[in-house]
Structures are given as structure tokens and as C-alpha cells.
Specification:
Elements: H1 6-11, E1 20-23, E2 30-34, E3 40-47, E4 53-60, H2 66-81, H3 86-94, H4 99-111, H5 125-143, H6 153-165, E5 170-171, E6 178-179, H7 183-202, H8 228-243, H9 248-260, H10 264-268, E7 275-276, E8 281-284, E9 292-295, H11 298-306, H12 329-340, H13 347-360, H14 365-372, H15 377-386, H16 388-406
Length: 424
């Protein structure tokens, strides 16, 4: 090929399916790689003293002119001729990376979709938000300046103990409150650190993952659920709140979460295109477990139909401004629960309450898992498409919770418990 010049480099078209290589006709081993994204990078390819083929990236086109890259390549290839291995030296330098540097690398690569997470898919944006919070609040604050190579299990478990003790507690802007650590935050931080170091090892940035084998502190599971009386109390407070001008969209979202067991963002980001009323289901394009079909009862469908949203809006619960979805449900729930004198109620508690009511009505764990989207893909999909029992279960559970919410007084006689349909 001809000598690499700026005009020639700029003229090379990227291929959407693979990297394109162009080799310099003047200096053997010096070339250019064009990524499908269009990024152009100068590199050298050579064989080390052991006869193994190596590539070494020199820099990106633009930051380096072709002649500058050629001069660097000539120096590196001369070192190869002397028996040196520039690529191995760079890897050795990377092995001395600090924890902060590895964290920054992970976030940068993950945000561009280069790192694959569960089911070999790019890591979700919501997961990266949580990862970044733990990295900035805990990991960098406690061990960020340490070399990864020098870390021991004692260091990592010591970081966990420090988080539990509140050493990284600080004020938070925006949502209020303080990051106080605790067993749950500490355990999740260890999990994040182990994962990102595992990715770095797989990419040969570090020689080993020092977090492998670290014991995570046991965090108590959240078991809060609303009792029958608390559901009635919440319903009375919601009706009072309507009369006093509470946000109607927030109240409707709370009701939908109770009647479906949806996660907070599953409810808030629900789009009208996802809802199939005739099949009693919602077809989520994406959830915590990926794309999913979720069965819902008639009482939940009634909540959705009651939302008077203009046709040009995608979301069932639109934001007050802009074209996004409503986001203030936590604040609305907090105000309503304060009125009802209920404590410790979160959107997750509403989800747990739905599952608990389903269990009290006699439905099996497999049925409840299908309603919540917890079951394996094969089980969930088989249920949704072929088994009317799941639809009947969703209808009975949502109707029972709606009856509790709408009951005016706890002294009124409860209807007979509906007969549960066994799910095999």
C-alpha cells in the first residue's frame, strides 16, 4: 500500500461490521486501524522475541499527524529489533493502575457499550448510575489512590467495614438526606468493585482481581409490607389527599403499583403502546430482567384507562412539563403516608405488599413469580401466552387490593376470600 498521509487516512471509509486496517508502504509494521465508529488509530504490529504477534496502539489520528505517528513507530520498532517488547511494557505499566483509574476506565467503556453485563448485553444506564454513585461515594473515597496490584482481601473487607461504620457519610444535594452507608450499601459496593475489577482483568488491564473471595456482609432483607388495615388507611389518606389538591398523577401511579406489583420506573415509564387491554397484559420493551410481558388485572387496567392523556403523549403518567414521564411519585407517597401516619413505605413496599396479598389469597410461589416478572424467561413466557390462570390470578389480586383501598371503614364486613387458581 502507499505511504500513509493525511489525505489517504481521511479518505479511508469505516466498515460498520469490522475494523479496517491500512498498512504503510514505507515502514513495515506501521499502520492505521479504523473502527466501525470512524475512530482512526495509529498502531504497530510486530513479533516479539518469542515469536508472538503483538499490536501496540500509538495514538489517535488528529492528536497525531501521520508523520509524527511514523516517527514514534520507527522508535518502537527499533526497540523491537533490540529484543524489547513495547506492548508488554505498556501492560506492565497498566498493572500498576490505581483503583480510581480502573474505575474511570470502567465507567468510560461501559457508557459506550464496550463492556457487557448480564446476558452478554451492554450494561444498562440505570445500573451505571448506581455504580457511579458507589464508586464516587465509597470506593474512590476510601481506596481510590491505592494501586490495584497492592490491594488485599483485608483492604477490601476493611473498606466494607468503613462503609458500614459511616466513614463515607456526607450530605447529598438534590434529593436531600445523607449517604450514611450501612450493611446494604457496603455489600453492594463490594459487588460493584468485584465486577469492575473482573472486567479490567478480562481486558488485561490488571493481572488479577483482588476482590475475588471477599466476603460481603449479610444485609437484612426488606420485609416491610402493608397490612390489610394499613392498605385501608392508605386508601382513606389518598381520598383525602385528592380533596386537598395532591398531585393526581402521583396518586394514580401509587394505586397502579399496588394493583400490579410494578417496580417504580416500570409504572412511571409505562407507555400506552405497551398496554394490551384485550390480553390483560403489558409488553415492556425493557425491565430489570430485559424485555418482558406482564399480566395485569382489570382493576389495574381501569386505573390506566382513567388517565386522560392526550393522544400525542407516550406515557400513561406524563410529566408536568416536557415530553417525559412523571418522576415525583416518591414525594407524593411520602406526603400521603405522613397524612396516614404510616412509616417506612416505599415503592418497593407497595410491590412487596402485592406479592404478600397474592400469597394470602392462596396463589402459589410460581404464580406470584410470574405476576412480578421474577420467574425464568421460559416459565414467564409460557404462563403469559398459554395459561389463563395467571390472568385470573392478576385479576383477583388487583380487585382484592382495590376493594381494600376503596373501603370506607375497617369495620365493614370483608367479602369472602376469592378461590385461588392453582398454578402448575
Amino acid at each position: 500500500m502507499a505511504k500513509l498521509t493525511k489525505r489517504l487516512v481521511d479518505a479511508i471509509e469505516p466498515d460498520s461490521d469490522r475494523d479496517v486496517f491500512a498498512w504503510d508502504g514505507e515502514l513495515r509494521g506501521f499502520g492505521l486501524r479504523v473502527k466501525p465508529t470512524g475512530t482512526r488509530t495509529y498502531l504497530i504490529q510486530y513479533r516479539n522475541a518469542e515469536g508472538r504477534s503483538r499490536r501496540l496502539v500509538l495514538g489517535q489520528h488528529g492528536a497525531l499527524a501521520p508523520q509524527q505517528a511514523r516517527d514514534i513507530a520507527r522508535q518502537k520498532l527499533a526497540a523491537v529489533a533490540r529484543g524489547e517488547d513495547p506492548s508488554a511494557e505498556r501492560h506492565a505499566a497498566r498493572a500498576g493502575m490505581t483503583v480510581s483509574e480502573v474505575c474511570d476506565w470502567y465507567l468510560q467503556q461501559a457508557h459506550t457499550g464496550q463492556i457487557l453485563g448480564r446476558k452478554r448485553r451492554p450494561i444498562k444506564a440505570s445500573t451505571l448510575v448506581s455504580d457511579q454513585c458507589r464508586i464516587e461515594a465509597h470506593i474512590k473515597a476510601l481506596i481510590g489512590m491505592r494501586s490495584v496490584r497492592s490491594l488485599s482481601l483485608a483492604d477490601i473487607e476493611g473498606m466494607q467495614a468503613d462503609i458500614v461504620a459511616g466513614k463515607t457519610a456526607k450530605s447529598r444535594k438534590g434529593r436531600g438526606g445523607r449517604t450514611t452507608g450501612g450493611a446494604g450499601a457496603a455489600a453492594r459496593t463490594i459487588s460493584t468493585l468485584r465486577s469492575l475489577l473482573g472486567h479490567a482483568k478480562r481486558w488485561n488491564l490488571i493481572p488479577s482481581n483482588p476482590a475475588m473471595g471477599a466476603r460481603q456482609i449479610a444485609a437484612g432483607k426488606r420485609v416491610r409490607r402493608l397490612s390489610t388495615e394499613e392498605i385501608r388507611t392508605l386508601g382513606r389518606a389518598m381520598r383525602t389527599s385528592v380533596a386537598e389538591g395532591e398531585h393526581p398523577t402521583g396518586l394514580a401511579a401509587i394505586r397502579l403499583m399496588l394493583l400490579t406489583g410494578f417496580r417504580r420506573l416500570e409504572a412511571l415509564a409505562l407507555q400506552r403502546a405497551f398496554v394490551n387491554e384485550s390480553e390483560h397484559c403489558v409488553r415492556f420493551a425493557d425491565t430489570k430482567s430485559g424485555a418482558q410481558v406482564r399480566v395485569i388485572g382489570q382493576a389495574a387496567i381501569d386505573v390506566i384507562k382513567a388517565q386522560r392523556v392526550p393522544e400525542n403523549f407516550r406515557y400513561i403518567f406524563p410529566a408536568d412539563w416536557g415530553d417525559g414521564h412523571f418522576i415525583g411519585v416518591v414525594r407524593v407517597l411520602s406526603r400521603v403516608c405522613k397524612r396516614a401516619e404510616l412509616t417506612g413505605v416505599t415503592p418497593h413496599v407497595l410491590r412487596h405488599t402485592f406479592a404478600s396479598i397474592a400469597a394470602e389469597l392462596g396463589f402459589s410461589e410460581l404464580t406470584i413469580a410470574g405476576l412480578l416478572g421474577h420467574a425464568s424467561k421460559g416459565v414467564t413466557q409460557r404462563y403469559v401466552h398459554l395459561d389463563a390462570a395467571l390472568i385470573l390470578a392478576a385479576d383477583q389480586v388487583s380487585r382484592h387490593i382495590a376493594d381494600l383501598l376503596d373501603r370506607l371503614a375497617s369495620s365493614e364486613e370483608m367479602p369472602d376470600t376469592p378461590t385461588a387458581v392453582a398454578a402448575e
